[in-house]
Amino acid sequence: MRHGNYPRLWRKYAGLQRLGGRGDWLAMDHDDPEEMFLGATDLTYISTAYYYYSTMIVAQTARILGNQAAYILALYMGLLPDNAVEQNADALEAKLLSNNGYLNTGFLGTAYICQVLSAAGKDEAAYRLLFNEGMPSWLYGVNLGATTVWERWNSLNPDGSISSEGMNSFNHYAYGSVMEWMYRYMAGINPAAESPGFKKAVLTPRPNFRLKSVEASLNSPAGIYTVGWHMETDKTIRLRVQVPFDCEARLILPFSNGREELLRAGSYEFHYKAIKPLGELPEIDGPFNRLKECIPVRPLLDKYFAGWQNIPRFHGQDSLARLCEIPYLHLNIDNIDLLKKDVEKLYS
């Protein structure tokens, strides 16, 4: 479209963005009488300057506001200069930790929170959010019997009663947006940017010790891609991949020091030792809920604390040492040091 002689579409000049407009309107410094109203200052320069200025305002606003959603949107939408991304991702993680590891976001912030954490290399924080069980969390509703995604985090109270009769749908998919993170990061299925329609894919699965196995299939326009991973021990992983006909995928094997495979159509399996533990060293002195999530540690809990599966959920925030002080649980506090030694050996 054109307005007079002024372009109204985005144009690219030498890597900068130009949005047509009136420029330095009615300046007196243009030599061309047909464009004298625009002024002599280059439109590309003006557009780029204002674009940068607006972006920096938004980025500074995120830092000033300092809430989770502000950081999430700034990170996901690319509003931050490169040298500020890590700092803001750290700040977001700190906000989560200050909230006992829980999110407090609504529809917009929740849609991207796990994605920006994983994009910043903070998979552990993203997985922790997914497996939280208190309110607000995805598993809060599951533990209350939910088979759909609710409009509110607390559509039901802990006793099962309805929290509010107004604006309280029990089939409202907004928070189900976490599924995109599961496909893109947990399973690692992504389209290659240079090849639309999934003719080429980039597969970057990211296992975590909270899950023993994952399998995801995506029915793309080019066919079905499948990625599955299975943790056999703390340092061993089995990976299964299927690439559809007439397609190819670049697979980046997790915990392999950057090993890549170019895969044509077909089915593949990889079985190898990970170069590092598939998760952070568990905190034995932290909340028991966190410790029991660690699949590789569970056989050790069986060894030293038989019956740990029967510990009531309301004790989940207590440490193992505190649980050992509760008489009816019958746990031996002397076994904590033995557990610590075996866990350190497992993760060394």
UniProtKB/TrEMBL annotation:
Catalytic reaction equation(s): Hydrolysis of terminal non-reducing alpha-L-rhamnose residues in alpha-L-rhamnosides
Segments forming domain Alpha-L-rhamnosidase six-hairpin glycosidase: 67-186
GO MF, one annotated term: alpha-L-rhamnosidase activity
Enzyme Commission identifier(s): 3.2.1.40
Source organism, top-level taxon: Bacteria
GO biological process: carbohydrate metabolic process
EC top class named in words: hydrolase
Gene3D superfamilies associated with the record: 1.50.10.10, Maltose phosphorylase, domain 3
Keywords, alphabetical: Hydrolase
InterPro entries per the UniProt record, alphabetical: 6-hairpin_glycosidase_sf (IPR008928), 6hp_glycosidase-like_sf (IPR012341), Alpha_rhamnosid (IPR016007), Bac_rhamnosid6H (IPR035396), Bac_rhamnosid_C (IPR035398)
The Alpha-L-rhamnosidase C-terminal domain, residue ranges: 188-259
Name listed for the protein in its UniProt record: alpha-L-rhamnosidase
